[in-house]
Fold this sequence. Notes:
- The longest helix is centred in the middle third of the chain and has 19 residues, at 113-131.
- The chain has helices spanning 42-49, 113-131, 150-161, 173-182, 195-202, 220-225, 249-253, 264-267, 271-286, 303-311; strands at residues 2-7, 16-21, 30-40, 63-71, 83-87, 96-100, 104-106, 141-145, 165-169, 186-188, 208-213, 227-235, 258-260, 294-299, 318-322.
- With 323 residues, it is α/β, with parallel strands linked by helices.
- The model has no long low-confidence stretch (mean pLDDT 96).
- Helix 10 (303-311) links the parallel strand 14 and strand 15.
Amino acid sequence: MARVIKILQHGGPEVLTLQDSDVAAPSAGQVQVRTRAIGVNYIDVYFRTGLYSAPLPFRPGVEAAGVVERVGAGVARLAIGDRVAWAGAPGAYAELVNVPTERLIPIPEGVSDEIAAASMLQGMTAHFLTHAVRSTQIGDTAVVLAAAGGVGLLLVQMLVRAGASVIAVCSTPEKQRLAKQAGAQQVIGYDDPPFDQQVRQITEGRGADVVYDSVGRTTFDASLGSLRARGLLALYGQSSGPVPPFDPSRLNTGGSLFLTRPSLAHYTATRQELELRAGSVLTAIADAELDVRIGARFALEATADAHRALEGRTTTGKVLLLP
């Protein structure tokens, strides 16, 4: 038996139900992991509310770190006692999880279980945004919204390391301080005046080369308005809700703009690419070249509170569940 979080119906954080559940032995090609730290991400909120579909009842969570307890048939490269982490395999909100070995990454020495769980999904997201969605060039001007969030703080650091000048957009002075600490050259708020006007002023009217927007509905127009001609808007989240339908001719009148809605799954579709991204992130952490901030920790039985904190925008950095 193991404690697990299940969603029996879509709704608010109150639908996250803690249950005791039997856990089957791992199938061929799987290992059973006892989780030590579990990442809480906005994609979990999307599945909980039904914005993303999944058959009910549903066990949320796509990211965790822990120790291998049992090994399924045909598994050769992992053994009982190995520390591993993953992102992209479902059902992580649990004490025991059976995970396909092709999604697992060994945790290197010098990286704790908590830091590994805090860096897989958001670290690899920051990596593909910096190096794959668009190849960052020295001298680029990049705007990062929600810059004090889990992805935001890592994205700021990676962009600066790649040679970009970062304009961080944050909602509070404390969050602005954290973004500045992460390396952002300019830190601004969302309003008073609207952030697109502030970006235009900072760039002397030119606009930014790229905007990274995880907020969605409430920031989409200003994100487009922040771009230079032929600039790119990478819309990688929608914490304020999905963007309403719009006329694509706006991209033309805005200066032949580019828009993408990328997903980590598509940028870690092969084992080779998964190892590249996870390896780059974990190596940078082990070498003290990348700082991962854990902003809040919750017990498994307080998962609903973790979701409330995340949705209430009261957290900075990563939110973890500790089973």
